[in-house]
Structure formats: structure tokens, C-alpha cells
Amino acid sequence: VIGHSNFSSIRATTCVFKGKWIYEVLISSQGLMQIGWCTLNCRFNQEEGVGDTPDSYAYDGNRVRKWNVTTTNYGKSWAAGDIVSCLIDLDEGNISFYLNGQCLGMAFSNIKMGPGVAYFPAISLSFKESVAFNFGSRPLRYPLYIEEYRPMQDPPTVDLIKAQKLLGYFKNVLSTQIDCQVKDIAVWQLHGEPTVLVTLAHIFNHFAPLMCKVYLVEDVLMKFLLSILEGGGSVEEHPLIQQILDMMWLLMEDYEVHECLKQLMMSLLRAYRFSPIIPDLGFQIHFLRLTAAVLKHEKSRKYLLNCFIVHYCYNSLTSGTFDVLRSVVFFYIKTPLRVKEAGLEELIPTTWWPSRFDKEGKVEPETKEESAEERMRRRAYERGCQRLKKRIEVVEELQVQILKLLLNNKDKGQGEASRYIFLNKFRKFLQENANHRGNLTVLCPPEYMVCFLHRLIAALRSYWDEGKGKMSSVITSEDAYIPPQLFYNGKVDYFDLQRLGGLLSHLRKTLRDDLASKANIIIDPAEIQANSMDDLDEDEDSNNSQRPFGAIAMGPALARPSWLSSPTLGRANRFLSTAAVSLMNPRRPPAPPEKVKLRSLNVEQRTEEDIEGSHGNDGLLLGRPPEEPEMLLAEKSLLEILDGIIMMYNLSVHQQLGKMVVVSDDVHEYAIALKDTEEKISRCPERRQDIMQELVKSQKVFAEKLNHLSRRLAWINATIYSKEKMLDVYWLLRVCIRTIEHADNTGSLFAFMPEFYLNVAMNSYSALKNYFSPSNCMEELPDYEQTLTRLASILAKHFADSRIIGTDIKDSLMQALASYVCYPQSLHAVECIPEEQRMAMMKNLLAPYEQRPWAQTNWILVRLWRGCGFGYRYTRLPHLLKTKPEDANLPSLQKPCPSLLLQRHMAELLNKDKEMAASFLNSVLNQLNWAFSEFIGMIQEIQQAAERPERNFVDTRQLKVCATCFDLSVSLLRVLEMTVTLVAEIFMDWSRPSAELLLRRLAQLLNQVLNRVTAERNLFDRVVNLRLPGLESVDHYPILVAVTGILVRILVDCDSHGVAKAAAVLLSDPCFQLHSIQHLLGGSEPSSDGVSQLPTEHKHFSLHAYTDYISPEEQQKVEKMLSFLTEESKQAAASTAPTSEEDLCPICYAHPISAIFRPCSHKSCKACINQHLMNNKDCFFCKATITGVDDYSKPAVP
């Protein structure tokens, strides 16, 4: 039952009116539900459900309450996997509930009874909550025979007794001597005692029909098979189960075997998924061993893989469908929600958590100051974690064994090998999960996918390295990669997943010549012209070509023994015709050795030959380009499994790895809270016992919560974040890196690669770095630095790759590179890539901002500079130090690690390519003008909203955009500071094109920023003082220090000639105000007499207040700059001659006319026309195309 509305209700179709009755409910999700009983008169709606009306009674384990119009506390909280038993005693008028077999006490008494009153099982549940009812169609998990409570549906007592007797007979027969060593079924049957086989045929004649009923399969057959394995040992040590399955296939009708196997596996699946977790995981191990034993039987395994209903659903356990492959439940190890019931207190008696933190809340590494008690606790906790890990590894090993059985490709005696059936089902599984990423009811749960991925990696690598042992020339799994031809030869279906170059149909059109010349592949025109029709035709063909599993190729008839001449022994006779059972596999004609016509194959159409290849057919490796070396691999099918594993990681595994980190974060938060509480207790005065009691109570709560979380974290670390799981993710990262490198070598065919390969490369590195630490250190991984450098090379090369057209993947690459340069180790990896790639990367970063998304690019440049700029050595802004960061591991909160090498490359490029330098700086100045103007406009709106008398709330989105514009302005100013520092000639060498113009534009923008930020009681001050949430980063320091850094560089650090030019341009700008410069050192606006006064009441910003951030040398430079500008401004004021209005530029009215345009002869100042011509060639006034600009000087008056 699944909730499809806000609070939906449902009742059963059967009622009871006297006696004692019970039914069970399996809790699949632990949300809001009310479970119990109701009468026919109850009317429910979206607001009122079971327990909200007079004649309905319910138990709610989510809120731990009972309901009957009113509500009171009752019972215990339930969790997913729990069994709730609902009991009603209509002799005494009582209702009670049990949770996992434990009585919760009487819930209701004196309920309404009498003529016309009958009670129905009922439930109300919220949207997407789910449960499974068992009214007695299957054995109750917790039957109450002693108290004489009966299930709503009577068990098949007669059939049960009959099945038990038949099973007893069967056991007696099995106790006779049968040769168990002979593997061939036919030989074993012929050599068996005739009396034994005849007896078994008679038993199965009655026993087989009973085994089609789920109750009997679960209560009789499954218990019997489990009892065989109770002695322990490996599955191979119990051949009896294989013999029993042989006899079932021999002596039962096919439909009976099919139904019996289906019910058996469904029962095992339910039992494994919902069995309680005990310290040794005994229940899970028991059910997995039987599953492995059943799947070890070849014919049973192939039937389960090939013929079951293939529609996967998370709730398939309740719908009666089963598919071995898609029921990844078998490969999941659930996390216990109740630590005590799971026995973790016994396994991990001593708990531990970090207790040392720095100012920013980060865990400090263990030091020599660790006390002996802390050391003992930590080591005891680690020993407990190791005990838990070893027990979990037993379960994981069994799960890998099951997958290895499903991946067996040697069992071709009775048709297609298991692996190729698995591959087809696996691809469908991936397709359903890829096509329904937003539909949680269809998707495989991500926590299941994580476990499935790790088991599949273990099984895959085992088979891969087995092939290496047989053929020394085969590459090892450690060096595995996906050859690029899989992405375009049509052998593997990638559904509608995006390729790097766009849609597959588009790529086949545009790159058909490259496919023909490089890969000898010719695109079938039908593939391009009518993809949809081809799909329909192929689906129809595949349906027509499907063959029943039971299709057989009959071999020569075996001689019939005289003791089997009775016509009544049809079941015994059937074993003779099964000696040569095999599946018919249609073979495709071998591909022509020349050019191959490409046509995509549906999953159902592929055969083993299409995958593995044969003489003259490369299978999955068809279409190898000349740049790609020949890949030596024993089994090509492993490549497709590996490709599917990478796709799985992209679909949901990475997101789940990020979600599970929450437990570690909770431990961190509670540990900090406990430490703070203990410090408060130590400071609390003795006279305040009331406060002391509250603090001690809080300390106890935090300690109990930490005890629970630390044990739960141990489980999660063992199942998800262990060293072995980390190595799996690292292996995937390296596989993706090698795959991308090989695909990149194919040139234009690189565009066929699916985007998810790049995503997995970036995300797996992020997971290794952020999710697996601190329990496992990434630096200890083999060849860690080399892998880091290779990934850096990929990011540097492809973030601006023209072959990649998807905006999302481009943004992801840019963000990954931006994060990469924030950390010393990864930045060093970028510096270690070949110089040619480094120069190409920097050239792409310096491309004009107008032609592409530029914010991330600019941020990368800022990170390369951070630590070298004026007052730019901080990790967090000074005014934010007292606040705790939301996430101290964010890239933006890492310590500065500038790259002098990449700065040098930037200087070389800007010096060498003058045109690129001018274009780059012009775009930076344009974006700075836009970002700061937007910021000022937004803070005006925010200020107006704050001043209104009515209560107003500023939109949080608007606040976020405002803060973003401010951060962009600061980062753009820092890029300008870096450019001025590294290549001052761009502004100071006026022989370069646009140098003078760039300097004038720079001065203009600096003056505008200073005037807006430093004006007395201005808009910026008022908004900063509001301290609105979302505007935390907006403050005087970051933007004023960035501007100061630029001014100091052009007015102090340059040579005398350059300083003179810069001062002249700055002072000539009409927006220049000396008091804005004075404001940097705490000066105020001039008073009425023109003398600058020190602040009295209002506290001004001053660089002198930031001695921890600004060195004395930097302060001296600012003082020197202020003195210089003060003197220069006095001289400029004394020497400036008044200019008539007629001689001023008609565009800016700030500079005299100094240029005349050709051919229209209109005039302006040089600064205006040069800036205009950078983006437009038309005249300001007449729109004529300007062909040239000449100097203009006003003729002398005679």
C-alpha cells in the first residue's frame, strides 16, 4: 500500500465480529501513518483518518501515540523494516499492538461491540509512505498461537500437514545412498537406484502442486533448505541443494518449478530485507547463503535471470514480482536505526568522537597533548569498529559470490551464458533509472545502488584478473579503461544520455566522414533519417525473435530402462528428454572485413557474438581508430559491465555518498556543543545551581546523542566509507581518466563520449576528497600525485574545449577547475602539467569575458592571485571572524595558495599578445562597471524597503544577487590589481594600443567606487550597518583594500614616468575627490573651511585598524600615496586654466576636444572615441562608419 495523496485511507474487504484476530503490517517507510481497525460506518477524508473517528482505533509509531478521536502517548517508535502486529479481542472488547513481537500493552478497551458491529483492518498514511499487509497468505513473522489469536486469512492447514509429511518422506529417500560426485545429471539419473527414482517421482506427483503456494514454499520448503545449510561451511560443501533442484526440474512440470522458484526467491528477498540486524548479522548471512546455493544451480539461475517479470519497482516485494538482477536488495546492507537492538553496544562498548577544534570549527589533528584516557577511548573505539567491519565483510563476500554466479560466462551448456542475460537486464535497469531520475517510486533507492556498485566492482575485477592470469598479454583491471569505439559503434545503448558534442543523431550527421575515415564505419542512412521508425521496427523484430526459455534441441533418445515402462510415471519419464537441454542462439553473419555499416542494436537483439566478437568481428571493439592501440582483453563483455558501473555512479551513487556525510557532520556538531557545555559548566559559579542543573542536563543529552551517533557512524564507515570502498571509488576515477585520455586522442570522435564520464571523473575526486576523510586519507592512495596531475590536465584542457557544447558540463568543468586551484596539492598538480597545456589554459582564461560565462573564470584568476595582493592574505573577512562558517571545507574558505608559475604565464601572454591584452582588460572593465552599477542599484532598493514605515521583508533572492554582484566587483578589482602588478606596461606604455584609454577607464572606475563607498553617511554605510542575512560579505574592507592595491601599484610601485602618467590621468578625471583617498586612513570629508577633520562621533573606516591583515610596509605605501596625491592635486588646481564650454568634449564634458573623425569630421576627446571604437565603428552623431581618427587642436585665434 502506497500513499498517493496528502492523507489517504484504505480498509480491507474482510471484517471480523467475534473471536480473537491478528494481522501484520510491514513498515516500509517510517513516516506518518495510523494503523488499526475501523467499522463500516467510519468516513475518512484528507484531514481525518483511521483513529480520528469514534469507531476507529489506530497506533501511530511515527509520533508514538494511539488515536481514537483523542490521542495519548503509547508504544514505541517504529522504523523501516519493523513488523507491527494488530490484535483485536472481540470477546473481551480489547485492541492491542505488538512491535517486532514485543507487546506494547493494551491500547483500547471496552470498544463498541454487538449486532451490526464488525471491524475491518485499516490504515491512513501520508503521501509516498508505504507498508505491506499480511493477513495470513504468508506465515506470520510473530504468530501468537499461545494466546489463540488467528490470522485474518486461515493458513492452509490441510496442505501444510500434507506438505510436511511429503517432505518427511522426501528426507527419508534422500538418506539413501546416492552417488553425489557425478556432475552430469543424465549420468547420475541412469546410475541411481531405480527404486529411489520411482519413489521420488511418486512423492513429487503430490508434492509439486503444493510448492506453487507461497505459504507452503515459505513455511516448508525454505525452512527445509535453510536447515541444510545450518551446519555452516561454504555453499560448495552442501551439494544436496543442487541435487534437490535437479530433481525439481526433472520431476516437476516447468510451470510448477517456475512458480516454486519465484516464490522461494521472493521469500528469501523479503526475509533478507526485513530481518532484524543482530551483532553477527546471522539472519542476513543465512538467507544469502541459501540464495547463493539456489543461484549456483545453472538452470535455476538462468530461469531466474531470463524469464521473470522485468519491471523493477522498489515496492516489488509486495506486488509479487521478482527479478534477481533488479532486486539489488540482496546486495544492500541496511544501516540499523536502533543502535541498541542491532547489538552495536556489545560490539562497540566504548565510544569516541573528536574533541579538539580550531577557531573555525575544524577538527585539529591529534597532538601529543592527547590524554591517556582519550587515547585509550579512541583505540578501544577503533578496535570495536574493526570487529564490526570484519562481520560486515562476511556479508559482502557472500554478496560478491552471488554476483559472480550471475556473471558466469562459462555456463553455455544449456543456452546463452548467464553473463549475457545479465548484461541485457543490467542495461534495462540502467535505462529505467536514467529515464526516471525524478520519479522516486520507480528508481532503485540510491542507498541500494551504493552497495550494488561496490559488489559489482569486486566481482568484475575478480573476473578481469582471472583473464589476466590465463593470458599474460591482457591488461590488468588496475589499468582498465573503456575504449572510445564503444561510444560510436552502436554496440552499447546509451539511451538518450547527452554526448559531449550534442545529440547522437546530430553527431552521426556531422561526423559521418570522420567515422568512415578513422573508424571504417559507415552510418546507415536509415539511422539518420528515421530514428524513431527504426526503433519501432527493431522492437517489433525483437519481439518476433524472442523464443521461450523452454525451447530445446532434442538429442538422441536414450534407452528406456524396463523399470520405467509404467505409463503413470510421466514425471519420472521426463528426465530422459532433459539430458541434452540447450538453448538455441541465432548467430549473426560475420561482419565484412572492410567498412562496416553501423546500425544501433536493441538490447534484445544482441548475441554473444555481438559482444565478444568472433573471427573477423571485433564485437564491442568494432571500429578502432588509428590513434587507439589494440586492447588485449580476454572477455569484452566486462567492458560493458564497467561502463554500466560508471553510469551507476553518475545516476545516484555520488549523491548518496554526499548524503551519508550528514551523520559525520552531526557528530561534529554535537561534539562542539558538548565541549562548549563542558566549558560553561567549568565557568558556572557555585551559587547558580539552577543554571548548573540545566547545563548538566544538556551535557547528558549531548553525550547520549554522541554515543548513539558514534556507533551509527562506525556502521556507516564500515559499509560506505571504508578504505576498501575508497579504493573502489579511486579505481573508478582512474578508469574515467584513462578513458577520457584515450577518447581525447581520437580527435573529433571525442564528441561521441557521454557526458557522464567527465562528471564521474570530477565527482569521484570530490567524493574522495570531501566524503572519505578524515577516516581515510586521500594522500595515501597509490600514485595519488600522478592521478591528481592527470585529472588537472583533463580539466585544464577541456574546460574550453570546442568539441564540448553542453553548457552544464562546461560549467561543471569550470567549477571543478576553480575548486582545484584552491588547495595546495591540487594547485601543484596543475603546475605539473606540461607547459604547453598550462599556457593554453591561461590563454583560455584570458579570453574576452563578453563571449562566454566569465564569473568562474575570473574567480580562478583571483585564486591564483590570492595571497599576493594588497591586504589579500586572509582566509575569512575580518568582520566575519566572530561568526561560524556554515561549511569550513568550502573552497572559498581555504588558506591562500597563490601560483607564481601561472602568474608568470599570464604576464607572458599579456606581454606577447597586445591585442588580446587590450581585449581582455576592456572586458574586465566593462564587467566591473556592470557589476558595481547593479550592486549600487540593488542596495538603493534595499535601503528604500528598510526605510518604509510598514514592515517589509526584502526578498532573500534579491539579497543573494546583491551580495553576488558585490563579490564579483571585488574579484574583478583583484584581477585588475594582479594585471597591473604583473604587466604594468599595459596601462603605462602608451605606445601600446589602447593603453591610455585603459588607464583612463581604470581611473574612472576606481574613482566611482571610492566615491560611492567612502562618502560620509552614504548609502553603502547604511546598508552595511543593517547587517541583513545574506549580505554578510558586503563590507568596506574587501572592496576598499582591492582599490587601494591598484592605486598603490600605479602611484607608488611604478617608475617615476609611470607614476606621473597615472597621477595625471587620475587627477584629470572629473570624479576624482581627494577626501575619498583620505578616507582610507580614517580621514573625513572637509569641513566648511576646507580642512579635513578627524572623526568625532561617527567611526570611519581606516586601514590602520587592520594591523593583522595589512603589513606596516603596505600602510607606509598608502601614506606615501596620500601625500603624493595631496601635493599633486594642489599643483594641478593652481595650474589648471579654465576651458570654455565650446571646447569641451560633447560626450563627456570632462576633457577638451582632441580628436576629429573621418570622414564625417565630428569631434570628441580621445578617451571617448577610443572607448567607443572598441565596441562600435559608427559615429556618435551621424552614424557614419568611422574610417580614421586624427588629432585635433583648436586653431590659434589671430
Automatic annotation (TrEMBL):
Pfam families: SPRY (PF00622), TPR_RNF123 (PF25576), zf-C3HC4_3 (PF13920). It catalyses: S-ubiquitinyl-[E2 ubiquitin-conjugating enzyme]-L-cysteine + [acceptor protein]-L-lysine = [E2 ubiquitin-conjugating enzyme]-L-cysteine + N(6)-ubiquitinyl-[acceptor protein]-L-lysine. Its EC number is 2.3.2.27. It is an enzyme of class 2 (transferase). One of its GO terms (biological process) is proteolysis involved in protein catabolic process. GO terms for cellular component: cytoplasm. SUPFAM superfamilies: Concanavalin A-like lectins/glucanases, RING/U-box. It is found in: Cytoplasm. Residues 1145-1183 form the RING-type domain. Keywords: Cytoplasm, Metal-binding, Methylation, Phosphoprotein, Transferase, Ubl conjugation, Ubl conjugation pathway, Zinc, Zinc-finger. Pathway: Protein modification; protein ubiquitination. Its main location: cytoplasm. The keyword Zinc-finger applies. Component of the KPC complex composed of RNF123/KPC1 and UBAC1/KPC2. Interacts with UBAC1 and CDKN1B via its N-terminal domain. Interacts with RIGI (via N-terminus) and IFIH1 (via N-terminus). This is E3 ubiquitin-protein ligase RNF123. It comes from Erpetoichthys calabaricus. The gene is RNF123.
